[in-house]
Fold Centromere protein M.
Amino acid sequence: HLATSLPLPSERDHLRPRIDLLVFMIDIKSKYSLKNVEASLAYVDASFFLGKVYFLVTGVGRVNYCSVEMSAIWKLGEAYCSPVLFCELELDRVRVATAQRLLRILEICAGHIPGVSALSFGLLMKNSADY
């Protein structure tokens, strides 16, 4: 399910499935995109930041057109203890690989992969970005 911002409308709460993963998309070419994500974070329960929140940064192939500082994105990931993923949605191969990666992360967050928790996987993802 997709939403442009949080909070989600409450009138359909009873129909909404369990939320296992939140992926905040930040378009590196839009300062509004980052501001929208920052505003939406206030509506996320603190327990979700234990391995179930990721930041997906799009438009990384167009560094010349950046409106968002990379340091702001890294600080956001650090502040919320959440991994930052990068992709270029305009390239089919990268878009498919990113979708597959997110589906695998969702399987882990939903508890469908035995022996791997969302928290342990999130920490592994975060630590691998440090190298």
